[in-house]
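## retry 2 of 3
previous attempt timed out at serialization; input unchanged, resubmitting
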Amino acid sequence: MRPHHPNGSEHLPEPPQQHSRGEDLPLPVLRPAEILTVLVCCAAASLAALEWSWRHGAMLNYGDAIAHLHIARRIFDSRNPGLAQLGSVWLPLPHLLMIPFVQVYRWWANGIAGAIPSALAYVAACAGFYRLARRWLRPLEAALALAFFALNPNLLYLQTTAMTEPLFLCEVIWIVAGAVEWYACLDEDPRKAGRLQAWVAALLVAAVFTRYDGWVMALLVWCGMGAVLLKRGRLRSPGFWIASVVVAAAPAAWFIYNSTAFGDWLYFARGPYSAKAIEMRTAAPGWPPHPGWHNPWVGLLFFLKVSEMDAAATALGNGLLALAALGTAWAWLHPGDQQSLAGNREWVRERRRAFPWALLLWLPVPFYAFAVAYASVPIFLPVWWPHSWYNTRYGMEMLPALALGWGFAAQLAISTVRKLKPRWAKYAAGALFALVAVNAWAMVRERPLVYVEGTKNAATRRAFDREIPPELRALLASRPGEPVLMVTSVHPELVALTGIPLRQTISESDRGIYCAALAAPAADAAVVVACGGDAVDHAVEEHPQGLTAVRRFTDKGQPSCTIYVSGTYKAPRPPAGITIRHER
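## retry succeeded, writing output
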């Protein structure tokens, strides 16, 4: 008899008993219509979230999102354009992907330039997640897992911003899916396995250039693939060693870049803009910098809690986290639908051997337990001391693992109901879909944790964003093309909101020009924007000659900013192409 889909229709054909070299393994049939449906539905969800974020002005809530856009823009719009403008700490791939979009001034200023690659990554991540889930789940349970993943309000919000999480999640999901498929066809179709090996290597390089988590992922995945090939006596494959060189070259290239551009191959880890330096500057004297400092167990608790809060509503958090863990454990011991795989023990064994690759989705747990404790990566939660919001988006990296575990738990529940009360199976499935919808709705009602952090982040800049750009526009209207000396990394959005190109500013990204301007602010800049404690503020204190304060801006909890006008600056002929632009 043919196995039955939970809705009563015949679906999964019996696995073929024999298959020749080059044929697919007897996996559940993933029909093109399924992938098309996933793409259409997830694209619709993405567009709906983009429209909401646009109407609520939320695309630029995160200061980091504005900074990512700023870095991408200055690669070609600065006094010294080039790849050296990528900076030293954040990895370069997200900024490189934004370059085609930030060239449109309005898109750079309003955040659309960052939302486009993030939204595309979200849709691709959904497709990859569904493909991975269908390795072990029937369409119904795979759809449940996908709904849990794709309808997460935090993810839907992040994919409307220039943040790096959607891109990295996309890379991780496709890395795991590629590794699973590579392992499954390694013996049956070596040529296909070779293509998948190259695909995984390319994705690992992308992950290495997206987030530092990707470095650990690349090490584990590639060493795991090498161990499998060694066990099978295939480690001499030229393709593997060529790909190994490419994967190893990715972090090496970042070391070389830091050494060449900044004179220190570990500048990203110990320079003035590194996480460690920021932690030391912000730590209160006599107190540990943050909870979990040098305590991996506390770091583990904070990461698990933020992962739970990012994935589930308060009332459902502990239960859904436990179900995801239970579902993953059950899938490891019980891979595949035994009702449809009965009599094909070899297939079951193959799927069990391939499943450990999916456990890579749980890698963020040990990574962030260590990172919080020893790598200056604090996580602050409103429910635990110090009762604040900081790096709450890091919990999003556990969303694929939790969603896949939820899918396995759903399969276990539906299979159990089907055995006891076959007619109730469809009601059990409906109840599980309702639970996913209720969870998403409850998270929206509670306000998603990541979105709340973004709004609080934006609130600290709102007064300056509203008051400083009009003043700058008024001053520059009579000084078209004349330079503005300011630290753009602190408030990069002020440039876009003023409507001038980045190359009209003199900032810390301009190296020698910037240092010369700090030594003589009035001589090298027509307008100076100094915010309390920054390098320009210190330069004005040391060299105030020729500068007149026009207006001082203050906001609660923020260093004050002052705009100065130079009385001694003599403007050379304006460079071609520099004009004042009144764009918002």
